[in-house]
Amino acid sequence: MKTMNPAMARVLKRLHYPLDVMLTCVRWYVAYPLSLRHLEDMTAERGVSVDHSTVHRWAIKVLPVLEKAFRRRKRPVGKSWRMDETYIRVGGPVESALYRAVDKDGNTIDFLLRTHRDKTAARRYFEKSIAQNDIPETVTIDKSGANLAALEAINAGREAPIRIRQSKYLNNLVEQDHRAIKRRTRPMLGFKTFRCARILLAGIEIMHMIAKGQMKCARGAHPSAADQFYEIAT
Question: 190, 92 in Cβ contact below 8 A?
């Protein structure tokens, strides 16, 4: 394992476990449908004693740094987007809306967790996605009035409006992509706080994008998803 980058060094400077142990645990947590108790047992089988709460603390510290590093190396996406939201349980019975979109090839555009599902939340998602990925030519949504109103509000200030399509059938691609994220969150049994949910979901999304080949690598290189995850930490 290479020496960690300065940002990673700052967040982990008081943690005394080896870097490869910490990063391996964090990667397992966001890459596979595992609970923290599973990770505690798995590290114990390998002769490393790590409390499940420690793994959670590592993830909360490490993942924001990895998200920033990944975004600098994220590949460009297509101009035809499929956008939808799915529900994530945060703080007991309350469900928050995770806004997501993919392009026509299934590449993740962006994601945003919001406490409400309404026009304001949808518009914030579109603004964030456009800032990170440039203007799409077409956005396909379902029959959601809130998503339609948000896109119409964005188009109101544009000379060349984004084309809007409302089609449940054409949106199957993003709905299927939701399942990969939900599979990873299910063993987590919901999130206690919005902040933790936002950070961990970002980590899950990053690992999902890496697995889909959305990270720029050196020409001719074909590193594994695991190696790419470790690379953005060094």
Answer: yes
